[in-house]
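Collaborator request, handled under Task 6.
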Amino acid sequence: MRRLPEVKCSSCALPGAAVCLQCIIEPLPVGWCDAWGVYAGPLAALVQTFKYDRHDFLDDVLAGLLEEVLRARGDLAFDAIVPVPMHPAKVRRRGYNQAALLGRALASRIGVPVKPLLAKTTDRGTQSSLTRRERAENVRGSYVASDAAGLSLLLIDDICTTGETLRACASQLVAQGAARVCALTVAKAD
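Structure tokens returned to the collaborator:
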């Protein structure tokens, strides 16, 4: 599995520059964004199996990768872990929310509670086949956040492709008063 290089965008974790061109123009509303590895090869296969093939037992293995990133960053000062939510209808179809499983497994490893401060209110199509612009439109208005006043939050998801899902979720948490939102995923598409 390919790890992300040391040099990556602090806003979206894209390999290659301290801040990528897209994030110079429109940075994510996060303190930092990071991922363990590149969404390709064996890591992509592992994440897809976890996400789509009901291999929910991989949650702890993948949470171990997330923990590795956090410990390397030296940043564990969070009040709560907030998994990216799925619409309830999609959870029923899939059987689980992979981000929620990752969040719970990571919480047990680092001693930070999970707080479901976000809800997905619309069941729109999957993001995987959409362009950046279509992804942004697809998630616009899809998430709502509960009161996050003064909290330092770690937003968790399995994959960051364009960052639009993380943007939509982090924006809602910031709008509800979060003092800090950082984002962490298992994989980053390059």
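The cover message to the collaborator said: "The chain has a mean pLDDT of 92. The radius of gyration is 15 Å. Please let us know whether this matches your experimental observations."
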